[in-house]
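Hi C.,

You asked whether I'd gotten around to modeling the 200-residue construct. I have! Everything is below, sequence then structure, no commentary in between.
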Amino acid sequence: MRNIVILISGSGSNMSAIVQAAMAEKWSQRWAARVACVISNQAAAKGLAWAQAQALPTHVLSHRDFATREAFDAALQQQIDPYDLPQAPCLLVLAGFMRILTPEFVAHYQGRMLNIHPSLLPAFTGLNTHARAIQAGCRVAGATVHQVTAELDHGPILAQAVVPILPDDSAATLAARVLTQEHRIYPRAIADWLRQHPLG
């Protein structure tokens, strides 16, 4: 059974979309995969309570308890690796995890760590994507699922969704519409990845 470990920092809306898709589409039967654990760097993350209500194991590891990114990432890896078995390497899913990961951490999970970013990459990497797209006069925005590499918000693109930018859009209204598309494409991209990387 392949273990999916999800990292969150906040509300966990993408995480909940993934968990619900895994249950509804019976990933455990179709691709021998299950959401095994949810980890947050924020103890107050609302997504933790939702995950606990689904009887999912959760862990909190605050980055504030570590002097360096390297030390935090090493501790985070120790939390994840019990789910990362030689015969069933885990899939690591970033779902609103607001931390920049070190190259060493990324290399450890190379090829099996996914992220979703609220822009049409390669445009608008980093933060404030919706405001920047509006300020630039873009006609469309969107979301991108990609494999994680050491370079921030780069890596092979697995899925994208396009959302029109309306004349009266604010960053908040655009973000809300993009988020609905994130909930649609992220579970689908994970399902595609599982289908293309069977165990055995």
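If it helps when you're writing up: Helices lie at 13-24, 27-30, 46-53, 69-80, 103-108, 129-135, 171-196.

Thanks,
B.
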